[in-house]
Design brief:
heterodimer, A: 378 residues, alpha/beta, 12 helices, 10 strands, 42% helix, 14% strand, B: 193 residues, mainly alpha, Rna Polymerase Sigma Factor, Chain: A, Arc Repressor Mutant, subunit A, 2 domains, 10 helices, 68% helix, 0% strand, globular
């Protein structure tokens, strides 16, 4: 054999790998490795696997080579076949996972928005009348570009209110199951309170009840998103009323989440979201005739937990509704609610509360879509 | 252990190669290849980092020998096979776009920098360069110097050196390699080659 270093056969390598050589023999072997890059690199590779596996592989290779020399089909095909089997196995596993996942999602009627909302509004404790010293903070949420729960709905609201209404009812439905899941029995909020078809939260047939006294959190959007928020750290500001004005560009759920988080940290009970317009162009949005501050106080004094609920400590209801050019409240849609009872209480409070002035655009009264967030808290 | 013995254990690589090229006997080529198959597998494993792919490579390289050997005049089968193996791995990695920094690693390997016939001065046991060698060893960084001395002078194996110096074997090998490279540079400055 050529080469100046002693040729090390496969058994020399295996003995070295298995630690079967004496120190002296190891040293001599390593001297050969130092002078022979082929051997050195081979050893570096073989050391990547346990000696037993290396031996097993080498045995297999000898067998395959033997078959090849005997004129049988190239042995590497077996290797390729084995690899194909591995790939098929992996593919089958992935497919099985996909199927299981799909079935799971179907079974539980999974809705990403709802899931998110559930996470965000994890706490749905009972409510207690809210103290109301809050102030209305016009806009102020760092993400003036707050994304609405239903982008298209909100955007459409500014331009084509009627059409928007229709969209709202269609699109809000998917978000509703959350409320549905959590809802206990309850009667409907009011004649105008519409429950999403799939939600089953408020009962559309029920008459509005008299205003009740409880804490509130509301949020107005002259076409803005209903932003279920994280409620952590909200205790100190639970009675604040925030008005959030959006800019005209909605940029996606991330922004929505960010704004919502900011909202949750700074705002509390009544959160209003302004029109989807630049400030200079903002038409005067629909607003309580008595002003938001007064409305907030009204809600804080009158929002009450549903009579049947004696355990919940905190709950959030987000209602979206239309203020017609005539100032009527229509098409109330619960975007978020822990149950029909809560929806009813909030809806009744809204319907029996102060009158609303319609939004105006260049002195012309227009329809507007508003979102209010009511926070029940004991 | 594997029981591997060819029909012509006494024959050199080149003799077997000549025999194969003369008669085209696949058994002869198989016997020749068997001598290095574990090394081909090891090198493939080093670069491809996958047992199945490495085994595939071993068999593919054998097929390549069948087609390439008649077309080349090979003086040193072992060195030629080494380069062929690395090139095959290189192509595999490139095809799989898994090159990352491996291309540089492959290019910088000694096989591409020096022929198999060129031994490092410290491995040649040449007494005529002993003084220069000692002087250069003395100029090495502490850890490299220690590893060189323990390995070449005290004839310790990697494991013993790692235990004595409280470092991983990998580190020991690294210090040895770097030390040898620096020694070579130092010796070349002294016109010792």
């Amino acid at each position: 054999m050529s080469g100046k270093s002693k040729h090390r056969n496969v058994n020399d390598f295996l003995r070295y790998l298995k630690g079967m050589l004496s120190s002296r023999e190891r040293h001599l072997f390593e001297r050969d490795l130092e002078t022979d890059p082929f051997s050195r690199e081979a050893m570096e590779g073989l050391e990547k696997v346990p000696p037993g596996q290396a031996e097993e592989d080498l045995l297999e290779l000898h067998s395959m080579l033997g078959e090849r020399m005997a004129g049988k089909a190239p042995a590497r095909k077996k290797v390729a076949r084995r690899r194909r089997i591995s790939i098929y196995s992996a593919a089958a596993a992935v497919a099985a996972l996909l199927i299981v996942g799909t079935v799971f999602l179907r079974l539980y009627d999974f809705n990403p928005e709802q899931a998110e909302e559930t996470l965000i509004g994890e706490e749905f404790p009972a409510a207690v009348p809210e103290e109301t010293d809050g102030t209305i903070q016009a806009e102020t949420v760092p993400g003036a570009e707050i994304e609405p729960l239903q982008d298209e709905t909100v955007t459409g609201a500014v331009e084509t209110p009627r059409q928007e209404d229709r969209i709202v009812h269609q699109e809000a439905a998917p978000a509703e199951p959350a409320a549905d899941a959590r809802s206990q029995e309850a009667t409907a909020a009011g004649a105008d309170v519409r429950a999403p078809e799939s939600a089953g939260t408020p009962d559309p047939e029920t008459e509005p009840a008299a205003p009740e006294k409880d804490a509130t959190t509301a949020r107005r959007s002259g076409s803005a998103p209903a932003a279920p928020g994280k409620h952590t750290g909200m205790e100190s500001q639970d009675t604040q009323l925030q008005v959030m004005k959006k800019t005209s560009n909605f940029e996606g759920k991330a922004l929505y989440d960010r704004a919502e988080t900011a909202l949750a940290e700074t705002a509390s009970h009544v959160v209003l979201i302004g029109e989807d317009l630049q400030p200079a162009e903002i038409p005067s949005g629909a607003a309580p005739a008595t002003g938001f501050e007064s409305f907030r106080l009204y809600v804080a004094e009158n929002l009450r937990f549903p009579p049947e609920d004696t355990v919940t400590q905190r709950a959030v209801v987000v209602l979206e509704f239309t203020i017609t050019p005539e100032g009527a409240i229509r098409d109330i849609l619960p975007l978020r609610t822990p149950g029909e009872g809560f929806t009813r209480q909030a809806g009744q409070l809204l319907l029996n509360g102060p009158a609303w002035n319609p939004a105006t655009d260049q002195e012309k009264k227009i329809e507007d879509r508003v979102r209010l967030r009511f926070v029940f808290k004991r | 252990m594997l029981q591997i013995s060819g029909k012509h254990p006494e024959k050199t690589d080149e003799e077997l190669l000549g025999k194969y090229l003369a008669a085209g006997d696949l058994d002869v080529l198989g016997e020749l290849y068997t001598r290095y198959m574990h090394m081909v597998y090891g090198v493939s494993l080093k670069y491809l980092e996958n047992r199945e792919e490495a085994k595939d490579a071993v068999m593919q390289i054998f097929e390549q020998l069948v087609t390439d050997l008649p077309r080349h005049r090979i003086r040193n089968f072992r060195s030629w096979l080494y380069v062929l193996t690395k090139n095959h791995c290189f192509m595999q990695l490139r095809a799989a776009k898994r090159m990352r920094g491996k291309l540089e690693a492959i290019k910088n390997e000694p096989a591409f920098m020096e022929s198999g016939e060129e031994l490092h001065p410290i491995d040649r046991a040449d007494e005529s360069i002993e003084d220069a060698l000692r002087m250069c060893i003395g100029q090495l960084r502490s850890e490299q110097k220690q590893c060189i001395e323990l390995f070449y002078d005290q004839k310790l194996c990697y494991k013993e050196i790692s235990e004595r110096m409280h470092m991983e074997e990998k580190k020991v090998k690294s210090h040895l390699q770097n030390g040898k490279r620096n020694l070579k540079i130092c010796l070349e400055k002294k016109n010792v080659r």
